[in-house]
Amino acid sequence: MYNAHHRSVVWRLLLPVGDFFSVAVSFPIAFWIVLSFKSLTPPPLDHLTTLNCFFIAVLELFFFRLAGLYHWAALMQLKVMIRLVLMALLGSTLSYILLRTLDAPPEDSGHFMIYLPGLLVIAGTTAVLCVSFRLLLRQLQLSVLRSAVVERVAYIGHSTRMNRVLEGLKNEGLTAVTIVGWISIPSRSIDPALMLTGSPEIGTLPDLKAILVSQNINRLIIDLNGVKDGDLEHISETCSDLMVGIMMIPWASDIWADRLGIRRLGGVPLMVIYDLPIGKLGNKILKRGIDLIGSLVGLLLALPVMAVLAILIKRESPGPVIYRQPRPGYRGKTFQIIKLRSMRLDANEGTGVTRAIADDPRRLKIGEFMRKWNLDELPQFWNVLRGEMSLVGPRPEILDLIAGLRGTIHGYNLRHLCKPGMTGWAAVNGLRGDTSLDERVKYDLYYIDHWSLMLDLRILLLTLLPPKNAY
Length: 471
Known about the structure:
Blueprint: H1 4-37, H2 50-66, H3 78-102, H4 116-148, E1 150-156, H5 160-171, E2 176-184, E3 201-204, H6 208-214, E4 219-223, H7 229-242, E5 245-249, E6 260-265, E7 268-273, H8 281-316, E8 322-328, E9 334-340, H9 365-372, H10 380-385, E10 390-392, H11 405-408, E11 421-423, H12 425-428, H13 437-449, H14 453-463
Parallel strand pairs: 1-2, 1-4, 2-3, 4-5, 10-11
Antiparallel strand pairs: 6-7, 8-9
């Protein structure tokens, strides 16, 4: 059968190599297009040095990799193509600005990238060439590789992870996959909600050998959760005798399941959890840089709005305008979150600290408006500037309300592996205020496990929409 590891290496190599040449070639092509459109005589080609093309191509590949464009299984997914076009625009812009800064071109009124249309042409040329290269690879998949490999797959065990594996296997594109059905273990209970629709039972584990032969199975996938050692030994020996490939989903909690990998030490395979992308040094520096720029710009834009709101708060309720409250931050370290006061001064008297609810009688009139549009959160740009928060991350909970949550909510404390945010994945999905903490934690952990610049950008854009459950 086609070697999966070799296949992954090949595609991970082909994509960046193709993108490198596409970007390098797009620079002189765009130069020629724009000068021709302006009816100018193109300068000698030696003005477009190989060094400049190489420089821009390397920077573009850096941006492409940050955007996650080199997962071979997602070769032609629409969302990957959209990210490719956006990164081509961003990468071309930043690359050229840096290039101009390091090596300013001679004075030339015909220099095409002094104005925006020229910059868009080079970005568009880059995107067209990179997408075209992917279309070529896709055609190679369909015409050569897919027709060369046909896999008939059976599986043991029902779980959300198993369903994701089977869907991913069908969407790979490099092989023609048929999910024949599942094999049951008599002693193992089945949750009907986890059963894959349209997949039939083809037999039981004691009849494994006969099933594999009669159904012509060449790959068996096993979810090891709930499989006894004796059953696993029987499965392994039977598949070895029939030369049926085995794929195993390891015993593990769903937390960080996407981080699991295999490492060999002393010839012994170990199951390890790889570093989270949000915890890598380069990503932390990049995220902090964006936070610094975003918080400075945010403060400048928010100061006039906060000044008006402060006057309205003061008129309605004499007392302090700014409200400070202790919240758990990065790795549980407490910090003072800053907000515009949206409730009466006596809001917590008699009841203590409680969550805001719909039509909360403690709110000021201006407070209702501020909380509806998140305007009470504007001072937190200062928390971001100080490094206590990030623009995007799990929303910090009220310290007095989270006592004991570590033991009652699965994985709750893991949400403190990154800085809390002014907005977050849970918040933009309506999980805020008096909503399920279990669901909120699941969204927060998903964000930490799948962090990327594009996910942060998506959350920031969604934050601009009218918020849900803001009261």
